[in-house]
Design brief:
By secondary structure, this protein is α+β, with helices and mostly antiparallel strands. The protein folds into two domains: 12-128, Copper Amine Oxidase, Chain A, domain 1 (2-Layer Sandwich); 139-345, Zn-dependent exopeptidases (Aminopeptidase). Helices cover 35% and strands 24% of the residues. The protein is built from ten helices and 17 strands. The protein has helices spanning 12-26, 33-37, 51-56, 113-124, 162-179, 196-205, 260-278, 291-295, 311-317, 320-345, and strands at residues 40-43, 46-50, 61-66, 70-74, 79-83, 88-91, 94-97, 103-105, 108-112, 139-144, 154-155, 160-161, 183-186, 210-217, 228-233, 282-288, 300-307. The longest helix is centred in the C-terminal third of the chain and has 26 residues, at 320-345.
Length: 347
């Protein structure tokens, strides 16, 4: 279940209570699948469902922010703002990018059925995800982006390379996760080049239950851009966040799609923790078909934890304190995700 933003780390008891609320709301009277199907439309070949009807299943009540344009759906533990013709939504203040834009029809806001079932459902009631079953979290693969001749992004003025910082954070995270009792496998432990398919192969051969890829961003010619963003595998039959239009490749099923609902749950928890810890700009929880996310068999997430092309942010990334805070945030994201899937399995 999503958690309230800008708070201290959530206690296990509170998390369990929130999950229970979501699971109970799922069975609310008057919101059967047949009722939901009566609130469906099709737009440009995409199936949509009435956001009010779907989210009422989790106890969220709808009210217009601006009539026929933007709507807020809220309960005691969740608040979701949706706007017509926008892919961006906010979930408890966190920026999340849907696969398809919301649409307004006849005084109602609709969301795509894929977003309803593979984004909102696992976040609001993971115990209600029909398949695949919630994974058991024992082995975690940590992927330090780039390495060797592949420096990754750079800040040449300060002589900073992404590859050095990703490895530093990966090692810090490994130590934290091992203290929590997880078995950890690394795709690299020193400054070496590892092909992208090989990174996923290392995780798969180790039987990883979770894959975390660590990166830092850059954008040429835009030194003011800053902030953190989180990626998970794009669901089958949806376009990635960076795609303006559909492509035939969107319909291809990849290994990473086996865990679409759990990818969403993982990505949300990781992004929430990173934004809270680093206090940087929220650039969004997004979707992409990056090779490591496409090929890994377990739920996977890729973190872009700041921009080396922004001098102020680069200075922060270069400090051990920033990288320690990032590692701790990722560790807390794993704990939060683990709590959610453990609770889901107990229902």
């Amino acid at each position: 279940m999503v958690r309230l933003r800008h708070t201290s780390f959530m206690s296990a008891a509170l998390a369990a209570l929130i999950l229970l609320v979501g699971a109970t709301a799922w069975a609310a009277p008057g919101t059967s699948k047949s009722a939901l199907s009566g609130s469906s439309i099709q737009v440009a070949g995409t199936n949509y469902v009435d956001a009010r009807v779907f989210l009422a299943r989790f106890g969220l009540k709808a009210a217009w922010i601006e009539r026929a344009k933007s709507m807020r759906l809220q309960s005691s533990v969740a608040r979701i703002d949706i706007e017509d013709d926008k892919r961006d939504v906010t979930i408890n203040g966190l920026r999340v990018i849907m696969g398809e834009p919301a649409v307004e029809r006849d005084g109602a806001i609709y969301i795509s059925r894929i977003d309803a079932e593979k984004l909102f459902l696992p976040l609001l009631s993971p115990s209600s995800v029909p398949s695949p079953a919630a994974p058991t979290l024992r082995v975690i693969a940590i992927d330090a982006g780039h390495g060797g001749q592949d420096t990754g992004t750079q800040n040449k003025s300060f002589k900073l390379d992404e590859k050095a910082f990703t490895l530093d954070v990966a090692k810090r995270l490994r130590a934290l996760l091992m203290k929590q009792g997880y078995k950890v496998v690394m795709t690299r432990t020193d400054d070496r080049f590892v092909e992208l398919p090989r990174r996923a192969e290392i995780a798969n051969k180790a039987g990883a239950d979770l894959f975390i890829s660590i990166h830092f961003n850059a954008v040429a010619g835009s030194p003011t851009v800053r902030g953190s963003e989180t990626y998970v595998m794009t669901p089958q039959n949806q376009r990635s966040t960076s795609s303006a239009k559909r492509d035939a490749s969107d319909n291809v099923a990849n290994p990473g799609n086996r865990n679409d609902p759990w990818n969403a749950l993982l990505g949300y928890h990781m992004h929430n923790q990173v934004i809270d810890a680093l206090r940087g700009e929220d650039r969004g929880f997004k979707r992409a078909r990056f090779a490591v996310l496409r090929l890994v068999n377990s739920p996977g997430v890729l973190i872009e934890a700041g921009y080396l092309s922004n001098n102020d942010e680069a200075r922060r990334i270069a400090t051990p304190a920033y990288r320690a805070a990032l590692a701790e945030a990722l560790s807390q994201g794993v704990r939060s995700y683990d709590l959610a899937i453990t609770t889901a399995k107990s229902r």
